[in-house]
Design brief:
The complex is a heterodimer of chains A (140) and B (173). Helices cover 24% and strands 36% of the residues of chain A. Chain A has helices spanning 24-34, 44-50, 60-75, and strands spanning 13-19, 80-87, 97-109, 112-122, 128-138. Chain A has a 5-stranded antiparallel β-sheet, with helices on one face. The radius of gyration of chain A is 17 Å and the shape is elongated. The two termini of chain A are 13 Å apart. The relative contact order of chain A is 0.24. The mean pLDDT of chain A is 97. Chain B is mainly beta. Chain B has helices at 10-19, 25-28, 30-34, and strands at residues 6-7, 94-102, 111-126, 130-142, 148-159. Classes of the chains: A alpha+beta (140), B mainly beta (173). Chains A and B meet through helix 1, helix 2, helix 3 and strand 2 of A and helix 1 and strand 2 of B.
């Protein structure tokens, strides 16, 4: 179901749990589907002994993908016109992530109503792991 | 990423959607998807990243017969360049930002081509990882008619050394 501009209020938020106890296997799944086989995400031996990190960590794009689900569940399918993020902290196996969209503005563009959102994803310690924005076509 | 031909297939969309924890019917069930506003199987917002699968020169995929920098007999199959913290020596650095503009929904059955152009580069001193070198690239994904479907702008970063972790952040992980 798409959102309706007349029912939206600037400042309102939508929050969703993206993942609870992120597994290494899900990271492997994402590697296989996306084609990004960087061993930093899937190879504990390489990542700890060669790259010098405490463990493998998630692809930023996995976090962006999961955050995208929060957005599309909220604004509806095929409604996004823009979506962009910065990866602000790494996401580790075992993390639990929650993501929030906050309505920043509603405008008109090419005869359509466009809602602009701030987007933020945090881990179980409240540390921001992703910060960004999205724009979506909404109904009048 | 430059893919000469990136066929957007329903099976690939299903696998990708599962991997991001999203089993929305518009990604996973053709019949059910027909009854939605999308009108059929579409791709999730970050799906074009999977064009890596169709880039013959993509560096983060092992190539048959070539040494791979991940572990096998040894922790790495390749001699790392000196001091290359860089998010994993020769691992291509870390992903700092990603931005998409959607010109229309991407659908199963589309066949895309993509072209990537380098953008700006800049440097910054990082508190947790030494000198940071950022570089931007812009990729245009066009459909079988040559029309623009998605514009992607990515920013990668190479770090001087691995990103330091705050003392307590890891171990809940």
């Amino acid at each position: 179901m798409a959102l309706s501009a007349s029912q939206l209020k600037v400042g309102e938020t939508h929050t969703a749990r993206l993942v609870d106890d992120l597994s290494r296997t899900q990271i492997v799944q994402y590697a296989g589907a996306s084609g990004d086989y960087n061993p930093l995400h899937t190879d504990e031996v390489f990542t700890t002994k060669v790259a010098g990190y405490p463990s493998v960590f998630a692809h930023g794009m996995l976090t962006m993908g999961m955050t995208g689900k929060m957005l599309t569940d909220y604004v509806g399918d095929a409604r996004l016109t823009k979506y962009g993020v910065r990866f602000t902290s790494q996401v580790w196996p075992g993390d639990t992530l929650d993501s929030t969209a906050t309505l920043k503005a509603i405008g008109d563009k090419d005869g359509a109503k466009i809602a602009e959102f701030d987007v933020k994803t945090v881990n179980q310690n409240g540390v921001e792991v992703l910060s960004g924005y999205a724009e979506a076509r909404v109904d009048p | 990423m430059a893919a000469k031909k990136f066929p957007v297939e329903a099976g690939h969309i299903l696998l990708f959607a599962r991997s991001i924890g999203d089993e929305n019917v518009v990604y996973t069930d053709e019949e059910a998807a027909k009854a939605t506003e999308a009108g059929g199987i579409i791709a999730p917002p970050t799906f074009v990243q999977a064009s890596a699968q169709f880039d013959p020169n993509y560096v983060l995929r092992p190539k048959i017969g070539q040494p791979w920098f991940g572990s096998g007999k040894n922790p790495t199959g390749r001699v790392a360049s000196a001091g290359g913290g860089g998010g994993g020596g020769n691992g291509g650095g870390l992903h700092a930002e990603q931005h998409y503009e959607y010109h229309r929904p991407l659908r199963a059955g589309d066949v895309l081509t993509s072209e990537t152009k380098p953008g700006k580069t800049w440097e910054k001193e990082g508190r947790r990882s030494g000198k940071l070198v950022f570089s931007e690239s812009v990729t245009e994904y066009r459909d079988q008619k040559g029309e623009l479907v998605v514009t992607a702008r990515g920013v990668g970063v190479r770090t001087e050394r691995p990103v330091e972790q705050p003392a307590d952040s890891k171990q809940e992980a």
